[in-house]
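Why show two proteins at once? Because comparison is the fastest way to build intuition. When a single record is shown, students tend to memorize it. When two are placed side by side, the eye starts asking what differs. So, the first record is below.
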Amino acid sequence: MDISFALTGKGYVIVAADTTAARSIVKMKVDEDKIKVLSPHLLMAYSGEPGDTVQFSEYIERNIRLYQIRNTYALRPPSAASWIRRALADSLRSRRPYAVNLLVGGYDTSTHTPHLYWVDYLGTMSEVPFAAHGYGAYFGLSLLDRYHDPEASLEEGLATLRRCLDEVAKRLVVNPEKYKVKVVDKDGVREIEI
């Protein structure tokens, strides 16, 4: 029952994910952070099988950090997304593939542009202006298609995200109680209350 949304705007990427950890009909935790900060200007929302998501996200986080230590600079978002996609595709061809869906968002400090990538468990990647994973995608993608503006301010982007979250709350039978929202822009990653 993971739900995650992301959208780009004028100089920022907003990523939101629910905070519920559940298995079957049992809710085990309501404060799970499903958005991993990979570098000062890069973050990743993950969803899928509980063990796979944690193991894969920590593997990605550590390897991107190792790259930064070895080379004294962080990977730019397009390069990081390509490496993440390749790691997921390689695992698919192994004995133990990861069942993980990702939204990778970042701000490229060299070109001053936001980037958002949609990655699924099969290693398919696409750069998109907005994205969603989980049951919330059934309701949110049509709203994002209608109301998303690539030149929107942060406040307008948050209002669009709020529309999606309200629609999920109204129409989905099992509604998550809380969402964690993080923004990445020229100043780095920060968490926002919504």
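Second record. Ask yourself what differs from the first in the token line.
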Amino acid sequence: MSLCKHCIQGVRHEGDSQGTLKTIDGVACYVATPTVDYPKDKVILLLPDVFGIELSNNQLLADDFARNGFKVVAIDYLNGDRIPPDAMNASYDFMAWLSKHGADQTRPPLDKVIAALKVEGVTKFGATGYCFGGRYTFDLAFDNVIQCAVVSHPSLLKVPEDLKTYFSKSQAPLLINSCEVDQMFPIEAQTQADEIFGAGKFAPGYKREYFPGCTHGFAVRGDMSDPLIKAGKEGAFKAAVEFFLEHL
């Protein structure tokens, strides 16, 4: 399988990160903690795109979830080998990169961090996956490791196979943030998701948001100077917060 050009295009967002970089059982993480009281038994796992936890966009997203009362742990499941931010505006051999970041390499760091957080008393996990992270959010949901799943413009899904597997195996409510132009999760895939999960068929809960005028990557690397993309990014974040508040 492959990624599309929009998977490594986008705009770096500006702002000062409020969280901290720390190591959890040998895995690098970016941790954003609310400044107000919050449920200590719940954590949102943020599975970033191919630019990893170091990208300011991903850190700022984690901070925003924390401002809404969730402790967030963004995990370096790329094992320190993210795609450099400069690749957003330059050519990059991301197929060679992808060959070194399959499930055998990316799943173990996730499992290690989750196990360590359970030791600390966390019993309920939500996951929000962007692009590349959407694939691994689905995998965690397949195994019922997480109790709520949000994916935004997911990549590397086999459609309809992965949608059907999710329906049959997972108990995690699912929110999909989709958009108008997305080679990795196109309109046809979005329609199939609605056919499989929609109209109350998926008992745990299902919702799909659609943002016109947006392209793959909008929820994390969108150009905020474009009004439609700005509305899409902010709308996807709002939908995610509301979904976690309802289901986690």
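One difference worth noting in the second protein: The first helix runs from residue 56 to 67.
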